[in-house]
Prior knowledge:
CATH superfamily of the largest domain: Type I PLP-dependent aspartate aminotransferase-like (Major domain)
Number of domains: 2
Structural class: alpha/beta
Shape: globular
Number of helices: 14
CATH class of the largest domain: Alpha Beta
Radius of gyration: 21 Å
Strand content: 15-25%
CATH architecture of the largest domain: 3-Layer(aba) Sandwich
Strand order of the largest sheet: 2-8-7-6-5-3-4
Amino acid sequence: xxxxxxxxxxxxxxxxxxxxxxxxxxxxxxxxxxxxxxxxxxxxxxxxxxxxxxxxxxxxxxxxxxxxxxxxxxxxxxxxxxxxxxxxxxxxxxxxxxxxxxxxxxxxxxxxxxxxxxxxxxxxxxxxxxxxxxxxxxxxxxxxxxxxxxxxxxxxxxxxxxxxxxxxxxxxxxxxxxxxxxxxxxxxxxxxxxxxxxxxxxxxxxxxxxxxxxxxxxxxxxxxxxxxxxxxxxxxxxxxxxxxxxxxxxxxxxxxxxxxxxxxxxxxxxxxxxxxxxxxxxxxxxxxxxxxxxxxxxxxxxxxxxxxxxxxxxxxxxxxxxxxxxxxxxxxxxxxxxxxxxxxxxxxxxxxxxxxxxxxxxxxxxxxxxxxxxxxxxxxxxxxxxxxxx
Length: 390
């Protein structure tokens, strides 16, 4: 009876739901339980003290209403202080806007920066929600290949060759989803220099910045640059992973105040702001859960080491091409089969659920993403064993 927006209809189907449809639980008993490394979600609940705090917050009727569009003032100030402590520099609360998750922060930043028909440079393989957002907003994606021989880290010089007259932004994700690759401060510095020189935004999604390896002191020093606002840095962050509060939907954007006000304008037009409960959870986390945050960082580091050790001793033929934070990006050994068929086989025959590289863009036919945030270190040898089973 009516037409559907083609930009929506032609967008990639949600990959997680598709992958879950491959499972055949009736085939497996207690001897082979499901090993789910499909979705990047914490496998533990929020800290008990945070849950108790939220009980009182929920009982306070004043917290049931809209907050300021830009977010609760105390939370914006607390995040600015957290950024100063971690990165250095002088980020201020006026540079901060709170969103309903990091995906919303990305969509709002694209809406504020890009005209329909403009172009955004997206590293390939890409986080599929970023690509879906660009498609729905009718913004062209320019793929920036990330190669296994470079540890899946994008090259600044190659990026410059991709910039055209309609390019509005370069997007980076570090630690990366799907590859786990961690971009060095020097790489990020080079990208911000490029963005400034070319007059484009540099959108850096650091959803997983709290799960850097224990030997990394800080993600980068971009906020220490006096020109970071004018250079076009747009920093995206999520409270969801670090405090295990994915259901509360709270993320953030840090950028120059002019862009913040334009994004707030978009939010005001749509009458949306981050849920009050999620903002109060984030505020409590920043003020009270620093030790808890460090413990979970070490937990993920231990899982990375356990997975790497299990793969070394497995003789499965699978090779880790990059690893970090929540993710490992593996090359499968079946040269005559694509990643989709291998991922389906692992789900249907070995009760092991992961995502094929083809869900993250072209040229990923021999790669698979493993998200092990919900998998204890003790289970890693079992993952390796199922990969090697015939």
